[in-house]
Design brief:
The chain has helices at about 75-90, 95-100, 105-125, 175-180, 230-235, 255-260, 265-280, 310-360, 385-390, 395-410, 430-435; strands spanning about 10-15, 30-35, 55, 60-70, 135-145, 145-155, 155-160, 165-170, 215-220, 225-230, 285-295. With about 450 residues, the protein is α+β, with helices and mostly antiparallel strands.
């Protein structure tokens, strides 16, 4: 078992039908349920000490929030079944050494309990047709020594707050709008007004699939404040101060500022959250559990940089950076194009000069059908013709015979050997002048 840390804490917990009391509410009553056990070493359950400083026991303490759903009060039944399942599973005699020994075993046990609650809700739904389709979200936080293990299914949330780093959401909603956020199709601010922000993708009691909880474990320390809540709170109050697309701050109150202003008392903090949620136009049941670590090891969250409060401005800065990079890339491509074109033009000029030189120095080639010549050789002038001819790899007698034949054909001016091609040195020579006085060039 992990070495016990000397940790003290204080907590408050509360639930209210809140917006459900409105005559325009979709359903009346409170479908939320919660459970707090400040000391798992004894069998006294659901004892919520209001702001009293307590010592953490050997087995730790437990906090649970369940948000029910379904007509005919079935949502309240589902969330109560979920809470009752957790109560039974966390009786002191159930928490064996193999369960509490490591963060991994505790996490595995929480997920087992959530799946058990899912089966219990489905079983009750089959017994009573009026409760068919009932379900619930759930989030459980088990504080054991200096480690907090959370496991959840649905959109009830867990936050951790530290004065130096601000507030952080440590769970992630299993909801349709959260999937859109993960894909980059929605911003956090846009989820508040989205028409489908009430659709959850995982829950307890879903007849089409088994519950799939998600879990994580993190270190806690002195000064940290843990908040568990239903979406009746987090769906009305933003996590922190955020800004619209024009850089203007949303005027509504936010969870981070409220907690920061009430760290001396969790009871006062909870009351301030309720007042702000009501002013924000609450429309659903509101449940929250606040736990403040008053003594213990140094918090790692006090050393962690704060989350930026400028969510949309950050996105605009990224967008501006992408635009600048795009412009630079386009400029680089255009510059490369013109540079390449200039290099190609200079190469073409060099090729033209080389072509002109070769035309001036090379006048004719042997016929394609002649197999006696295997290599061409440039000739600089008639004076070194014999010298250059000595470098040709073909027999000299053959070359001499060819020259003799060309001279005979030139003097006769009647027929041309089909094996030879005549190319005038000067391309401007007229055709009739070419026939009268065409001078054969030396053979390459």
């Amino acid at each position: 078992m992990k070495k016990h840390q000397n940790i003290s804490f204080r907590l408050v917990s509360y639930t209210d039908a809140a917006g459900k009391y409105s005559p325009n509410a979709f359903r009346s009553g409170n479908e939320d349920n919660f459970f707090v056990d400040d000391d798992l070493t004894d069998d006294t359950t659901n004892r919520a000490a209001q702001d009293e400083i307590l010592q953490l026991g050997a087995l730790g303490m437990l906090m649970v929030v369940a948000d029910g759903m379904g007509g005919m009060n079935a949502g309240e039944v589902a969330s109560q079944i979920a809470v009752d399942t957790v109560k039974e599973a966390f009786k002191s005699d159930k928490l064996t050494e193999s369960i509490v020994s490591t963060a991994q075993t505790r996490q595995k046990y929480l997920e087992h309990v959530i799946k058990l609650a899912d089966r219990n809700i489905k079983s009750e739904s089959k017994k009573d047709r009026s409760k068919e389709g009932m379900g619930s979200t759930i989030i459980i936080a088990w504080l054991f020594s200096d480690e907090l293990t959370i496991s959840w299914c649905g959109d009830s949330r867990a936050y951790i707050f530290n004065e130096k780093s601000g507030i952080r959401l440590i769970s992630q909603d299993h909801s349709y709008v959260q999937e859109l956020v993960n894909k980059g199709l929605l911003t956090y601010d846009q989820t508040f007004d989205h028409p489908q922000n009430n659709i959850i993708t995982r829950s307890l009691g879903d007849p089409n699939k088994e519950a799939r909880p998600e879990s994580k474990t993190l270190k806690i320390g002195k000064g940290d404040i843990i908040l568990l809540c239903s979406d009746g709170l987090s769906g009305v109050l933003r996590d922190r101060k955020t800004f619209d697309t024009h850089g203007r701050a949303f005027p509504e109150e936010n969870i981070e500022d409220i907690i920061r202003s009430h760290t001396s008392s969790m009871k006062e903090c909870q009351e301030a959250l309720w007042i702000a949620t009501e002013r924000g136009g609450w429309y659903d049941n509101v449940t929250a559990i606040l736990c403040q670590i008053t003594d213990g090891p140094e918090s790692q969250w006090s050393l962690t940089p704060a989350v930026s409060n400028v969510s949309n401005n950050k996105g605009r800065k990224k967008t501006g950076l992408y635009i600048i990079i795009g412009i630079l890339v386009i400029c680089a491509i255009i510059a490369a194009f013109f540079i390449g074109k200039g290099i190609q033009s200079s190469k073409e000029e060099e090729n033209v000069i080389e072509d002109k030189t070769s035309i001036d120095t090379t006048d004719s080639t042997l016929a394609e059908n002649d197999t006696t010549v295997t290599e061409t050789l440039p000739v600089e002038s008639k004076q070194n013709e014999n010298e250059m001819s000595s470098n040709v790899t073909v027999p000299k007698s053959n070359v001499a015979d060819r020259i003799k034949e060309q001279n005979q054909n030139q003097s006769e001016a009647t027929t041309i050997d089909e094996d030879l091609t005549l190319i005038p040195k000067n391309k401007e020579v007229e055709k009739d002048e070419q026939e009268e006085d065409s001078e054969l060039t030396t053979i390459e």
